[in-house]
């Protein structure tokens, strides 16, 4: 979300040059810093209540420090390792087929995020054996700005929807052994086959994918409606030493096999006269205005976070333009062909399913 805010502000600034922005050509190689220090955004715990219930805290502690034997969804197939480099792949979906995909999502009571979860689940189930991954778990990032009250007296001028800050949380989706086994039984490409061609999706498998996608959407809606009650961010106050905590995390099995982290739709056109306080989507420049800056294509990918998900799926689109789906993973975590197969499957199946 912070990246989206940055590019929106950059586009606004580019289109305001010559009107309400200072622009000099005396010395373009010199960066002029403001006289006063910038006002940093407040931490989320200072501006929002993060209530916790005792059962949630106990469950979280058990998941973090308890035995992992009875948690089949942990990503044991992708143990935490080094080096800390990132592999990045991406593909695009043109605007017309994207409209068909989004229409199909609406028909099946889900979203693109839910569909990407279900398709990634299907791809990994086809490549990993039941012994390596009897069940799977994924994560969805959630923007916390929606919960921040506007016009906070203690922070005058603070606008969360216009502020680049770490206002994000994460929720987990677990796909149980029975579902993963059912997906494997319906796939025409066994994990041991190693073919480079994406499997054809049978009608039964397509129905299962849509069911999983709709379930993910319901889980996200439930988490959003619950607000900040029993959120993982609220538990962080119990961590006394973060270096020690991260070292412990690195010694345990990875929790998520993949994340879907999207920033939604980026508005690619802003009028030159738009002010910095304008938060609404802006109409495209007038016809014939060749001097206006616009965004036609955007791509988003996450760098490797060693103890986080094994694979990161990052969709982003510019309004009215093509969708770009980024995929990233830690180098040497697994054979590069696995990550490339996930991305190839997503690209192929998005076309098949709509």
TrEMBL record:
SUPFAM superfamilies: CoA-dependent acyltransferases. Residues 269-280 have a biased composition (Low complexity). Signal peptide: none annotated. Residues 269-291 are annotated as: Disordered. InterPro entries: Alcohol_O-acetyltransferase (IPR052058). GO terms for molecular function: N-acetyltransferase activity. This is Alcohol acetyltransferase. It comes from Cytospora paraplurivora.
């Amino acid at each position: 979300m912070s990246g989206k805010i940055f590019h929106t502000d950059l586009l606004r600034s580019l289109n305001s040059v010559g009107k309400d922005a200072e622009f000099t050509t005396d010395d373009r190689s010199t960066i002029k810093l403001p006289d006063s220090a910038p006002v940093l955004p407040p931490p989320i715990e200072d501006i929002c209540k993060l209530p916790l219930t005792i059962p949630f805290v106990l469950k979280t502690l058990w998941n973090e420090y308890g035995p992992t034997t009875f948690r089949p969804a942990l990503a044991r197939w992708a143990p935490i390792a080094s080096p800390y480099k990132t592999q990045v792949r991406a593909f695009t979906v043109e605007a017309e087929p994207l409209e068909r995909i989004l229409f199909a999502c609406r028909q099946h009571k889900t979203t693109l995020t839910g569909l990407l979860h279900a398709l990634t689940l299907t791809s990994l189930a086809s490549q990993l054996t039941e012994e390596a991954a009897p069940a799977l778990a994924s994560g969805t990032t959630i923007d916390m700005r929606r919960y921040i009250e506007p016009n906070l007296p203690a922070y005058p001028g603070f606008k969360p929807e216009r502020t680049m800050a770490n206002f994000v949380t994460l929720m987990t989706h677990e796909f149980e052994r029975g579902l993963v086994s059912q997906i494997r039984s319906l796939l025409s490409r066994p994990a041991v086959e190693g073919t480079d061609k994406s499997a054809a999706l049978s009608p039964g498998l397509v129905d299962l994918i849509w069911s999983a996608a709709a379930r993910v959407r319901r889980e996200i809606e439930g988490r959003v409606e619950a607000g900040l009650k029993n959120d993982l961010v609220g538990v962080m106050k119990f961590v006394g030493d973060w270096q020690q905590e991260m070292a412990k995390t690195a010694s345990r099995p990875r929790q998520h096999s993949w994340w879907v982290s999207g920033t939604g739709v980026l508005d690619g056109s802003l009028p030159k006269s738009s002010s910095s306080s304008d938060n609404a989507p802006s109409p495209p420049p007038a016809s014939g205005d060749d001097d206006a800056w616009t965004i036609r294509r955007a791509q988003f990918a996450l760098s490797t976070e060693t103890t986080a998900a094994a694979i990161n799926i990052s969709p982003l689109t510019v309004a009215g333009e093509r969708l770009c789906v980024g995929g990233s993973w830690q180098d040497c975590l697994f054979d590069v062909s696995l990550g490339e197969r996930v991305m190839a499957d997503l690209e192929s199946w998005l076309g098949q399913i709509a």
